[in-house]
Design goal:
Elements lengths: L24 H15 L9 E2 L6 H8 L5 E2 L3 H10 L5 E9 L16 H5 L8 H4 L1 H11 L3 H16 L12 H6 L2 E3 L2 E2 L8 E9 L1 H4 L31 H14 L18 H8 L5 H9 L16 H4 L4
Parallel strand pairs: 1-2
Antiparallel strand pairs: 3-6, 4-5
Length: 320
Amino acid sequence: MRRNQVAVVGAAETTKLGVIPDMSQIQLHADAALNAIADAGLKLSDIDGIATAVETPQQIAHYLGITPTWVDGTHVRHAAAAIEAGLCKTVLITHAESGKSMIGKPPRSIPAYSLQGQFEAPFGVYGPPSMFPIPVLRFMKTYGITHEQIASVAVAQREWAAKNPRATMKEPITVEDVLNSRMIAYPFRLLQCCLVTDGGGALILTSADRAKDFPRKPVYILGTGESVETPMVSQMETFNSSRAFKVAGPLAFKEAGITHKDVDHLMIYDAFAHLPLYGLGDLGFMPYEETGQFIADGNTRPGGKLPLNTNGGGLSYMHS
């Protein structure tokens, strides 16, 4: 990292220290943050990056009302920046989850003190199956998306999974199979929900000038983008869109110097079957009202013009 290129221009602690029984952990973060912002002579709207310890950046950004373009915890982007700055040479990035077997993983729970624990869990909102239905029903009504079109997402991704020896689910399915599978939380049926699996993955990143010395052909990073919105689905800016998608996408396109016409392979996180529809719209590939028919017409399946989630995704491959 070059010397004297970054400066601390504000610093503060919470207004009180020691024993503060009338403030939650998130409130303590916010109190210190607001004091530091004031110390720097800034406004909340001046802040476009956020990093935290103990609480997640998503929690604090939402609590303060910040829409960041940089958040601590976005691994590939930050590893690339660290390598370029000379802070390290070779970075290991890992993700793993014992989601099915729950070995060495804390039991699934929502802490009572968290935002979700206070303002959503008491009303029965617990986990994705109960978080996503209201937004997706709003999305369907606004843009005329049908149950059959959302079901076609799972069908297309099962076709890709059938080509992947490591995929969890490979048997072919139809739209009718999806719509006749067990109801989980309306409108989601079993085959529209993310698999619960064990597994993990890892990446190794190094500088481009060293990459040619490694045994495998390198994949160069053209552009990246990042943002977060809210840990609570009830507090989304709009149920018809993911603000994090809409902020991060243009950043990545601009940094890479490409347009949508240059993209011939797309991976959009698909915890549930509706998310590729959100992604296609929020990333600017097409108007939201066209996304359902685009997938139903086979454009993302093998042989389609925009292959999507070609390992089978979270719906048929595995979670990691």
